[in-house]
Write a structure and sequence with these properties.
Helix content is 83%, strand content 0%. By secondary structure, it is mostly helical. It has a single domain, classed as Growth Hormone, Chain: A (Up-down Bundle), CATH 1.20.1250. 57% of the residues are buried.
Length: 419
């Protein structure tokens, strides 16, 4: 491993984490429900539906984009395009005010689509930078640095919000500025990735075979799916347990404000601390998962997730909710890191972008029906967020049941035999 290149790769996690932390988790989601949608009964469902549309677009395009990136050695070029797209549309969210439902939804769909596609592409570099047993450690470095990036972006926004509120500014004035802060941090922090990370793959198709070549590789992967039975089982597991994770990420600030009565500043402070916990979780579990095994690591984190959901449901005051939130932080960093590393471990070396595209498909598919389930429960029950968060726990139980039948050694042999 070349340390400078590994660090530059991990810096992309640092750069893009501000988007998920500020836009999806901490600020814009609650702002959308309270201000853009005016706390209407359908407001939470509208937020989750907007996310669902963006994830559906990723589900439809991720495998083909991954296959194209492998066939044409285009991971880095495509990553640059998606990065610019996410930055531009995140900055565009600064124009969304009270009642701007249509532009707000459109900008969320576009920014989140470019974010998710870029997330798949940066992950596909991991097996090129680390081999075998080092995958978990390097993936953990990336997730840990990512939460530090989220912490810095959130801290910058919190500092601005505290100043703006002291001046008497309403949310419609200070939330748009946080979108600009997030976009600028993403742009600056991602520069090392494009300067130092190398594209090692070699094109295997001519330019005249563009879409046809990508679809052909994807069809071949699906046709030979039986060779990778354990990878496919894990991808199915991912669909369920990531549904729970993505629900918590997308609805955390909404739950905090609607159920616990948190202000924007309270929510920012809470998630700021949780990002510290998440960075610690990603780093610590990244060090131990190669020793105890990827599957055991994931099962431990899923138990933690289930406990956190129950605590959030039971919390009547801020203390127990803070405990639940920090347990989420520990499990968030470690479960994401372990999942990404296991996909790399079970993927054929020559098809990493393609299989990380399938990983992205699984995560984004879960991101459709997980938050939508939460949104539907709140809509049908006229705003019962406690019941919605409790229902989320079922996804973690299903994930543990499916992963129990995974044979990592067999899956690794199949990946290496494929070349």
């Amino acid at each position: 491993m070349e340390r400078r290149e590994v660090f530059s790769w991990a810096m992309y996690d640092f750069a893009n984490s501000g988007y998920t932390t500020v836009v999806i988790t901490a600020v814009f989601n609650a702002y959308f429900v309270a201000e853009v949608a005016g706390n209407a009964p359908w407001a939470t469902f509208a937020w989750t539906a907007a996310l669902a549309v963006s994830y559906a677009l990723i589900v439809l395009t991720a495998p083909v984009i991954g296959a194209y990136a492998d066939a044409h050695a285009a991971k880095k070029r495509l990553l640059l395009f998606t990065t610019v797209g996410c930055i531009v549309f995140t900055a565009g969210l600064a124009t969304v005010g009270r009642g701007d439902l249509a532009p707000g939804i459109a900008l969320i769909v576009l920014s989140n689509f470019f974010f998710g596609t870029g997330e798949n592409l940066i992950a596909a570099f991991l097996p090129e930078l680390a081999r075998g047993e080092a995958l978990g450690r390097v993936s953990g470095w990336g997730w840990s640095l990512g939460y530090i990036g989220g912490l810095i972006a959130l801290g910058a926004c919190l500092g601005y919000v505290a100043w703006a509120q002291a001046q008497g500014a309403p949310a419609t004035e200070f939330v748009p500025v946080t979108m600009l802060i997030t976009a600028v941090i993403f742009a600056v922090a991602s520069l090392p990735t494009f300067v130092f990370v190398r594209e090692r793959a070699q094109p295997v198709s001519s330019s005249g075979e563009l879409a046809r070549g990508a679809f052909a590789r994807l069809r071949e992967t699906l046709r030979h799916a039986r060779r990778y039975i354990d990878l496919w089982r894990f991808l199915l597991c991912l669909v369920f347990y990531q549904a729970g994770i993505q629900t918590v990420i997308a609805l955390a600030a909404i739950y905090a404000q609607q159920v616990m009565g948190f202000t924007t500043r309270d929510t920012l402070t809470l998630i700021l601390v949780v990002n510290v916990t998440a960075a610690v979780g990603a780093f610590v579990f990244g060090q131990i998962q190669d020793r105890i095994g990827h599957v055991r690591t994931i099962v431990l984190t899923l138990i933690g997730w289930l406990l956190a959901v129950v605590l959030a449901w039971a919390a009547q005051g801020p203390l127990l909710f803070w405990v639940a939130a920090n347990l989420v932080g520990l499990c968030l960093g470690s479960s994401q890191s372990a999942g990404r590393a296991l996909v790399g471990y079970l993927s054929p070396p020559a098809r990493t972008a393609e299989f990380f595209g399938l990983w992205g498909l699984a995560v984004k598919l879960s991101s459709i029906f997980g938050p939508l389930t939460y949104g539907l429960v709140t809509w049908v029950t006229q705003g019962d967020h406690r019941l919605a968060i409790l229902a989320t726990g079922a996804y973690f139980v299903l994930g543990m049941w499916i992963i129990a039948g995974l044979d990592v050694a067999r899956g690794r042999r199949a990946a290496l035999a494929a070349g």
